[in-house]
Design a protein that fits this description.
This protein is an alpha/beta fold and 492 residues long. The chain folds into 5 domains: 4-38; 59-116, no CATH class; 130-298, Ribonuclease H-like superfamily/Ribonuclease H (Nucleotidyltransferase, domain 5, 2-Layer Sandwich); 311-374, SH3 type barrels (Roll), CATH 2.30.30; 378-464, no CATH class. It contains 17 helices and 15 strands. The protein has helices at 4-15, 20-27, 31-38, 62-72, 83-93, 100-116, 172-186, 213-222, 238-251, 261-276, 288-298, 382-387, 396-399, 403-410, 414-447, 452-464, 476-491; strands at residues 130-142, 145-156, 161-166, 192-195, 202-205, 208-211, 225-228, 257-258, 311-316, 322-325, 329-332, 341-346, 350-354, 360-365, 373-374. Strands 1, 2, 3, 4, 7 and 8 form a 6-stranded mixed beta sheet that branches. Strands 9-12-13-14 form a 4-stranded antiparallel beta sheet, with no helix packed on it. β1 (130-142) and β2 (145-156) form a beta hairpin. The longest helix is centred in the C-terminal third of the chain and has 34 residues, at 414-447. It is elongated, with a radius of gyration of 36 Å. Mean pLDDT is 85; it is low at 119-123 and 466-473.
Length: 492
C-alpha cells in the first residue's frame, strides 16, 4: 500500500500523458502499481472489515489455551496462567512447535474475547429518600487500648451525604442500633435501604432473602423497604462503597483516641454533616447539604416510640452465678442465682441479665472477639488501670496476680509498671486473663522481665503445646562443630 500522495501523483501524471515507465521510475514504484492506480475507478474509503483468517500454528492448540484461561477465572488472581507459562505448557506437556510470540498474540486476543462478554454496569439513578449501608474497618485507641473496630456507614445516593457510627461488631444489634442512631439524628426514616449481602441484617441466597430475626422486627417497626445486593456485587451500592473510604480518610486519620464511644458517635454525626456543607454534588452541580433537604422531605416519619435493639436469650447460670454468651464470654450476676435460668439481653455494646421475672440484676459491657473473657476476671479492669496507675496497690488486678509476678510489678517504677500493665492488657485481648498471666510468668522466668515478644511466644506455646518428634532427637551433630571451634581456639 503506497501513500495517497503518490496515488494522486500517479493519476495526474498519467492523465497528462506521461509514460508509465517514467512515472514508475520517478516515484520508485513498479509499472504494475502505476497501471493499478492510474486505472482505478473508485478511491472511496473502504470499510475496515476483518479479512478471512489465515491458517495458523495455534489453530491446533487453541482449545487447550481457551480451556486453561477459562479455568483461570475460578482461581486466585495471583495463580493464573501468564502467556509465558501457557507457552511452556504447550511445548513441554503437549510437544507443540510454536513460537512464544505467537502464543502471546493468541493469549492477548483470547483474553479480549473473554472480556467482551464481561458484566456491564448500569448508571443507576437513585430517588430522594433512599439509602445504602455498609461497614468499613479502622483502628481506634479506646481508653488507651489500640484495636480495630467496624464502623457503620449510611449513604444517601441522591444527595451524596454520608453518616457514620462506630460499632463494636457487625451483628444484628449493631446494624439496627447504627441505623436507629442515624434515623434519630436526621429526624426521619429512608423509604428504602440497600444492604450488603454480608451484613447482620440478612443475606440473599439465590432468589431467597433470609432476614435476621431482630432486623425483621426493626424494619417492620420503622416501615422502610429493604433490598440486598447480589453476592460480590458491590457496584450495586457504589455510593456507600465510595463513602466508606471517603469518611475514613476525612474523619479517622490520624487514629482517633476515644474515651466514651457514645459521646464520640454523637459528635461524629455532626462532623459527617459538616463535610457536606457547601460541597457541590459531583454530578448535579448543587450543594450536597441542599440536596439532602430533598432527601429529608421524602423520608418516612419517625414512629412514636423508638425501637429497642436487643436480642433476648435464656441461659442457665453456673455454680458461681455466671452465664455464658456467644461461646467464650462469661458474665457474672451473683452466687444466689446459681443454677437458675436467666434472661440475657444482648445489645450492641452491653449485656443485661435479668431473673426469671424480668428484673435486671446485672449489666456489663458486651465482649467481642475470639479470646475468652470473664467479667469476674481482673482483665476487665486492666484498660482503666493502665490510665490510673495510682490505684495499682488497691486494684483487683494486683490482688489476683501470682505472688512472684505481683512482687516483680510492685518493684517497678511508674514507667515500668505502665509498660508491664499494658503488655498484660494487650495479651489478655488475645489469650484471656489466665493465658496472659501464664505468659507473663513464662516471660519473667526466661527473661527476668515482662517482655511483649516473650509473652507472645509463651502464649503460642501454651496454645500449641510442646513439640514432639517421632524419632529420638540426636544433638551430637551440634557437638562436632563446637568441638572443632574449641580446638582451633586452643591451638592459637
Amino acid at each position: 500500500m503506497i501513500s495517497m500522495d503518490k496515488i494522486d501523483s500517479i493519476r495526474k501524471r498519467y492523465r497528462r500523458g506521461e509514460s508509465v515507465a517514467s512515472i514508475a521510475r520517478d516515484l520508485q514504484v513498479s509499472r504494475d502499481t502505476v497501471y493499478k492506480y492510474a486505472r482505478m475507478e473508485d478511491l472511496s474509503p473502504k470499510m475496515p472489515v476483518k479479512k478471512e483468517k489465515r491458517p495458523s500454528k495455534m489453530d491446533r492448540w487453541a482449545p487447550y489455551v481457551d480451556q486453561w484461561l477459562e479455568d483461570d477465572m475460578r482461581e486466585n488472581r495471583k495463580q493464573r496462567h501468564s502467556a509465558h507459562r501457557i507457552w511452556q505448557r504447550l511445548t513441554q506437556e503437549l510437544g507443540a512447535d510454536v513460537a512464544e510470540s505467537t502464543v502471546r498474540r493468541y493469549v492477548h486476543l483470547a483474553k479480549q474475547r473473554m472480556h467482551e462478554g464481561a458484566e456491564q454496569y448500569l448508571d443507576l439513578e437513585w430517588p430522594a429518600g433512599e439509602a445504602q449501608v455498609d461497614f468499613g474497618f479502622a483502628d481506634f485507641v479506646a481508653r488507651g487500648t489500640r484495636m480495630q473496630l467496624p464502623y457503620f456507614v449510611m449513604s444517601f445516593p441522591y444527595s451524596n451525604v454520608g453518616l457514620m457510627q462506630v460499632m463494636p461488631g457487625q451483628n444484628s444489634e449493631c446494624v439496627c442500633q447504627g441505623m436507629e442512631n442515624i434515623f434519630e439524628f436526621v429526624g426521619g426514616v429512608p423509604t428504602a435501604v440497600m444492604f450488603d449481602n454480608a451484613t447482620g441484617a440478612g443475606r440473599r441466597i439465590a432468589d431467597t432473602i433470609r432476614l435476621a430475626t431482630l432486623f425483621k422486627a426493626f424494619s417492620a417497626h420503622y416501615g422502610f423497604e429493604y433490598r440486598f445486593c447480589n453476592p460480590r456485587a458491590g457496584h450495586e451500592k457504589g455510593s456507600v462503597e465510595n463513602k466508606v473510604g471517603a469518611l475514613r480518610r476525612a474523619l479517622l486519620v490520624p487514629v482517633p483516641r476515644v474515651w466514651s464511644m457514645d459521646g464520640y458517635n454523637s459528635r461524629l454525626l455532626e462532623r459527617c454533616m459538616a463535610l457536606s456543607k457547601g460541597k457541590e454534588h459531583w454530578r448535579k452541580g448543587e450543594g450536597e447539604d441542599v440536596l439532602f433537604h430533598e432527601d429529608a422531605y421524602a423520608f418516612l416519619a419517625l414512629p412514636e416510640h423508638p425501637f429497642s435493639c436487643v436480642t433476648y436469650r435464656r441461659a442457665v447460670a453456673d455454680k458461681k452465678g455466671k452465664v455464658r454468651v456467644d461461646g467464650r464470654h462469661w458474665y457474672s450476676t451473683s452466687p444466689e442465682y446459681a443454677g437458675q435460668e436467666m434472661i440475657v439481653g444482648l445489645h450492641a455494646a452491653k449485656v443485661t441479665i435479668a431473673d426469671r421475672d424480668g428484673t435486671v440484676v446485672a449489666e456489663h459491657d458486651r465482649a467481642y472477639g475470639d479470646a475468652p473473657t470473664d467479667t469476674t476476671d481482673p482483665a476487665s479492669q486492666l484498660p482503666l488501670l493502665c490510665n490510673k496507675l495510682r490505684g495499682w496497690h488497691e486494684s483487683k488486678v494486683r490482688a489476683n496476680l501470682p505472688d512472684g509476678l505481683r512482687g516483680y510489678m510492685d518493684g517497678l517504677d511508674r514507667r515500668g509498671l505502665g509498660d508491664a500493665a499494658r503488655a498484660l492488657r494487650d495479651q489478655c485481648a488475645e489469650s484471656g486473663w489466665d493465658g496472659a498471666v501464664e505468659a507473663a510468668e513464662g516471660s519473667l522466668e526466661r527473661c527476668g522481665r515482662i517482655d511483649r515478644a516473650a509473652m507472645s511466644l509463651a502464649a503460642k506455646r501454651q496454645a500449641t503445646g510442646s513439640i514432639s518428634y517421632d524419632d529420638a532427637v540426636d544433638l551430637a551433630a551440634y557437638d562436632r562443630p563446637l568441638e572443632a571451634r574449641r580446638h582451633a581456639h586452643e591451638g592459637r
